[in-house]
Amino acid sequence: MNFQLIGVNHLSAPLSLRERLVVTEAQLPEAVRTLVKQPGVDEGMVLSTCNRVEVLTSTRQGADLRGFLRSYFGLTRETLDSHLYEFEQREAVRHVFRVASSLDSMVVGEPQILGQVKEAYALARSLGAINSSLEALLSRAFAVAKRVRSETAIGSSSVSIASVAVELAEKIFGSLEQTTVFVVGAGKMAELAARHLMARGAGKIMVCNRTYERAVELAEAFGGQAVPFDRLHQVADQADIILTSTGASEPVFRKDHGESLRSRRKNRPVFFVDIAVPRNVDPEVNKLDGLFVYDIDDLQSVAATNTAERRKEAERAEKIIELEVERFAVRMKSLEVVPTILSLQEYCETIRQAEIDRIRGRLGQISPEQEEAIEAMTRGIINKLLHTPITTLKSSAAHPEAATIHEMIRRLFNLDISSGKNKE
Fold it and tell me: Do strands 291-294 and 415-416 pair parallel, antiparallel, or not at all (unpaired)?
């Protein structure tokens, strides 16, 4: 295994840094192409969500993933490096399994992350950035995530960032029945938020999106009202809760918008729940009287309660992860001996054929039956001679001395694995 993973998440980096590391859906293909062009990188994938940005690679010696992140995002070593986590080999495998199984999420057990990992994998694969090694790792990660879901109750009361945001709104208002909610953005996260709001009895929902047709579609699905994006600030004063989840690179609600909103609300409070990264609401808005802004990091206190309630299920899931990491390591080790086995078989077959050709002239004319008998006899001898070294190679894959045994057999038979043939 030559796996290397580096990144930041909601635990390692503040939101102010994470929003500088976002790779949008449109930017993702070029980010992946740039990654796999880095020296020492054979395969690569970029995962960018509201709570993490991670780079997963299969590398050779000398790959500088920290340097890649600093260069790609234009950040200094002092700004970025102290917030990075980095895993290699088995630890990288464990981390990928935990992320796919939603054990590393802000909301443990949320179902969205698996879909996000699959989308990142599919994109990288379509670009030719994923081949044998990462293909094996990610395919196994998806199977592990499925096993965790089926064998534990970690997702039985399935939650998401959107549902946590709605729970926070309920704590603020008590009941949502008399509230007007303004959902700004009509993507997957916004749709989830709208779904949860309706389930909790929200009085009225307005939906605003840059693509008006999408706002209409989402509003009609939940019996709400669609708002053109150019009227966003004109109608915002009608809302008690403004939930933002757009892909905008700059805040859509700035301090001047907040001042105007506060004036038109006539001292009635407005609660912003900003679940976008980068943030849609300027933190300065939170300094205005009567305007209260909760960003995605503020949701962690609510999420912590959900995590505590499912800690036992998470512990069961962690045990599954450990077993699967061990199984995957053994499988990858066993694959490492395949080139040696193939080279050994080819080496012996070359000798067998050469010896038959050498004595064929001395045998005179032989019948097809005799030819078949010679073939069977010589193949049988080779198979018996190879049985012990091949069996030893396969059985040693899971043991610490595997590398030593591997090297010993290569030396004994003078094998050159890089060419698939024995050395001359």
Answer: unpaired
